[in-house]
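Lab notebook, bench 4. The sequencing result for the construct came back, and we need a structural model before the next group meeting so we can plan mutations. Quick request posted to the team channel:

Model the 3D structure of this chain.
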Amino acid sequence: MLYPAETAIFVRDAYKYGVRISILCSQGTSLAEIEDRVGNPAAVANVYTFSALAGALDGPEMAKWRALLKQYFPDQRPEEAVFNGIGGAAAVVNALKLAGRDLTRDRFLEQLNKTTDFQTGVLSVPITFTSTDHAGVKSGGMMTLIDGKTALVASWPARK
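Done. Here's the predicted structure in token form:
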């Protein structure tokens, strides 16, 4: 578990010293950023990150989200980290709407804790919260770079 800059240093130096292993990174790691920082596509060939996104960044599942990013932030490159928070933010907005105009902390939490199978469109699975479980997403997949593009290589449960 390293920050992006330290991950790039580790990947670069592991390759430099002949270490050829699969490297698993946390969800906050951007494959494109690692590749840019390392500057050697061969060194990044065995780097994998967890992703709960609906699909690969360049895939059709993410087209709507790429278009929104381009519309509002034209200079921002699409990266995993850019989209990770959208699903949670959508669930919060939904709970705020359901809580109504007389918003209180208790009403908001009540609605948030009733969130069941909430489809965000950006995440691979719906979000569910309860009063005792706030881990809304319980599945995802592993992404890697193939020919310079992000690709989903495994998921659980397996996507159909």
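The longest strand covers residues 149-156.
Will bring this to the meeting.
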